[in-house]
Design goal:
Layout: H1 6-9, H2 15-28, H3 35-43, E1 49-53, H4 59-66, E2 70-75, H5 78-87, E3 92-95, E4 112-117, H6 130-139, E5 141-152, H7 159-168, E6 172-177, E7 191-197
Parallel strand pairs: 1-2, 1-4, 2-3, 4-5
Antiparallel strand pairs: 5-7, 6-7
Length: 202
């Protein structure tokens, strides 16, 4: 990993374990943790090949796996990936920097029908690597695949910058919502879910 992510530089010691235990507790309490996965599932065919980019402890990828999809999850934090492997067997969970993502080199050659980037991942990647992250995501998409990227608009990553970065990465914005349950986008929304695709020929 060339540059530490903001997950490392901008959080306190023990944050990863706190995050793991937080979602284990929420799951045990019966909280609804599948909102992002429901939207992805609604937008892809059954049994799709899906990438959970910045998977954390695996909550989104786990639900997609339960719904019959073939899931690969990648996160730069080895502690989070270890928790995903422990709590959610089935998907393939890998440690890796999204800015340097090269899954064919790891033996996963097939492109992805969709990539989900949930949990404010884009606000935690290393500063200055946002375009590289989106470019590597684009490189792993099937020609007609899509990427769904969600993050808070108040977390220091202006949406205008994100839009410039996705364009520089060779992606196009197809749709934007204010929530993962597809409430209409508005300029004062505190969250943005963007649906991205590769440019279509013709």
């Amino acid at each position: 990993m060339a540059t530490p992510t903001r997950w490392v530089t901008d959080t306190k010691a023990g944050h990863s374990q706190w995050y793991i235990e937080r979602f284990r507790r929420l799951a045990a309490e019966g909280a609804d943790l599948g909102g992002e996965a429901r939207l992805v599932d609604a937008m892809v065919a059954p049994g799709s090949h899906l990438l959970d980019a910045g998977c954390g402890p695996g909550r989104v990828g786990a639900v997609l796996h339960q719904r019959g999809h073939r899931v690969v999850g990648v996160d730069a934090d080895a502690q989070l990936v270890a928790a995903a492997r422990e709590d959610h067997p089935g998907p393939t969970w890998l440690v890796g920097d999204l800015a340097e993502l090269d899954l064919p080199a790891a033996g996963i050659a097939a492109p992805f029908d969709a990539v989900v980037v949930a949990g404010n991942v884009m606000t935690f990647v290393a500063a200055g690597t946002e375009t590289a992250v989106l470019r590597r995501i684009a490189a792993h998409l099937a020609p007609d695949g899509l990427a769904l990227v969600g993050f808070g608009t108040d977390r220091g990553y202006p949406l205008a910058d994100f839009d410039a970065h996705l364009t520089a990465a060779g992606l196009v914005l197809e749709q934007r919502f204010a929530t993962w349950d597809v409430r209409p986008w508005r300029e004062d929304a505190d969250f943005a879910v963007s649906v991205l695709r590769l440019p279509q020929a013709g």
